[in-house]
């Protein structure tokens, strides 16, 4: 799982609340993390692989939103691999991990592994949060026709730049001036927790607002495309709204336990003795949510693919398919046209004017297709309701 407690555990003089959760059934907890991350990893890869009998999704343009969805899945996969590796070492080499608690130990590799693995997990999931925020921004900009594939460069700069900057800053403040003296006070821990949970809270607060505005803009686009709001367009708008709802539902399910757990642990840290009997229920709740985090955090990758694409099936197609080179088809059609040229008449001018009249509708279809990518029924309804399909 992804929690700032992983970094604070690397401090030999860690606080009592961190000691409580990290020492609670560590073998069971690591086994839960390995099992959940492995299942999520396998199912996520299965979801992303091409399937037999399914034609590739055809998009009017390359979509930055589809690229962002793929990057979110990649971050989840890499973060899950970090969890599996860290938990496997934790289970397989308990003596190696025990050296982390030595204050003046000469072996630096246990602490290096502890810090490195925790930073890897935290960085990848933090980048996933920023990518999810970029997806909400991009969806809104696509509907407003203010975004394109070129904006993906800006998203890369913002996502990886902010993720690395906040992670390094939080770790530097936590371990200042040295690893053996960190966690001496809340002035070390609080900045680390803020930099860790800032992107998570940003997605929880801002993404629903952007998704709501995007859905409203989609409804306006669908109404303005032909001047009417048909049943097919109403269903398409509802499906886009449901897709956004599923994304936020998965995010809340996977990460609400982290916020609850951190709130309980901070409350315990404020108490003079966390082992007092009146705090028994709070300790139990903190330990329960700790185990829940180990299950739900790694499952985000698979659940997100369900929200993005739905269940894509088991039949994987691993055969390599030769793709037609665009200029081959263009050259063949050009040769045919040059061999049998047709005279120019007034009908071609009428056809050109019809193309100009449908430009706005095509742009609307492209924007809606980007948001409904991965939903075959939505794409089919969009094609049938398109002016091009109706023979304008």
TrEMBL record:
Chief location: membrane
Family matches, as SUPFAM superfamilies: Family A G protein-coupled receptor-like (SSF81321)
Record GO cellular component, one term: lysosomal membrane
Function summary: Receptor for tyrosine, L-DOPA and dopamine. After binding to L-DOPA, stimulates Ca(2+) influx into the cytoplasm, increases secretion of the neurotrophic factor SERPINF1 and relocalizes beta arrestin at the plasma membrane; this ligand-dependent signaling occurs through a G(q)-mediated pathway in melanocytic cells. Its activity is mediated by G proteins which activate the phosphoinositide signaling pathway. Also plays a role as an intracellular G protein-coupled receptor involved in melanosome biogenesis, organization and transport.
Subunit structure as annotated in this protein's UniProt entry: Interacts with heterotrimeric G(i) proteins. Interacts with ARRB1 and ARRB2. Interacts with MLANA.
Residue stretches spanning the membrane: 28-46, 67-85, 119-141, 153-178, 190-211, 244-267, 287-311
Organism of provenance: Prunella himalayana
Localization per Swiss-Prot or TrEMBL: Apical cell membrane; Lysosome membrane; Melanosome membrane
Chain segments carrying region Disordered: 371-392
Entry keyword Transmembrane helix: yes
Protein name (record): G-protein coupled receptor 143
Keywords: Cell membrane, G-protein coupled receptor, Glycoprotein, Lysosome, Membrane, Receptor, Transducer, Transmembrane, Transmembrane helix
Family membership: Belongs to the G-protein coupled receptor OA family.
Pfam families: Ocular_alb (PF02101)
Annotated GO MF terms: dopamine binding; L-DOPA binding; L-DOPA receptor activity; L-tyrosine binding
Entry membrane topology: Multi-pass membrane protein
GO term, biological process aspect, one: regulation of calcium-mediated signaling
């Amino acid at each position: 799982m992804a929690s700032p407690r992983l970094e604070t555990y690397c401090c030999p003089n860690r606080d009592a609340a961190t000691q409580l959760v990290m020492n609670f059934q560590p073998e069971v907890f690591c086994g839960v993390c390995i099992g959940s991350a492995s299942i999520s990893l396998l199912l996520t890869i299965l979801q992303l692989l091409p399937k037999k009998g399914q034609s590739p999704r055809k998009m009017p343009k390359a979509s930055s939103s589809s690229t962002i969805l793929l990057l979110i899945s990649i971050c989840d996969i890499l973060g899950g691999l970090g969890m599996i590796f860290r938990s496997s070492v934790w289970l397989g080499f308990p003596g190696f991990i025990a050296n982390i608690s030595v204050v003046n130990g000469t072996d630096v590799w246990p602490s290096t592994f502890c810090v490195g693995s925790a930073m890897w997990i935290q960085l990848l999931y933090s980048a996933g949060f920023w990518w999810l925020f970029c997806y909400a921004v991009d969806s809104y900009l696509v509907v407003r026709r203010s975004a394109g594939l070129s904006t993906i460069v800006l998203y890369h700069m913002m996502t990886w730049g902010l993720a690395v900057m906040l992670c390094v800053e939080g770790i530097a403040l936590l371990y200042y001036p040295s690893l053996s003296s960190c966690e001496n006070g809340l002035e070390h821990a609080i900045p680390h927790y803020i930099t860790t949970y800032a992107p998570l809270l940003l997605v929880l607060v801002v993404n629903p607002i952007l998704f709501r505005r995007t859905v409203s803009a989609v409804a306006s686009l669908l109404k303005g495309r032909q001047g009417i709001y048909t049943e097919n367009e109403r269903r398409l708008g509802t499906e886009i709204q449901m897709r956004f709802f599923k994304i936020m539902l998965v995010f809340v399910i996977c990460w609400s336990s982290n916020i609850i757990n951190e709130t309980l642990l901070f409350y315990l840290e404020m108490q003079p003795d966390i082992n007092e009997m009146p705090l028994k229920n709070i300790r139990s709740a903190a330990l329960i949510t700790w185990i829940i985090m180990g299950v739900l955090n790694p499952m985000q990758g698979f659940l997100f693919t369900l929200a993005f694409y739905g269940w894509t099936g088991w039949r994987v197609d691993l055969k390599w398919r030769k793709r037609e080179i665009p200029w081959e088809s263009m050259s063949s059609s050009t040769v045919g046209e040059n061999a049998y040229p047709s005279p120019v008449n007034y009908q071609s001018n009428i056809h050109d004017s019809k193309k100009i009249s449908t430009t706005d509708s095509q742009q609307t279809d492209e924007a809606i297709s980007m948001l409904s990518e991965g939903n075959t029924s939505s794409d089919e309804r969009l094609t049938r309701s398109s002016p091009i399909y109706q023979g304008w």
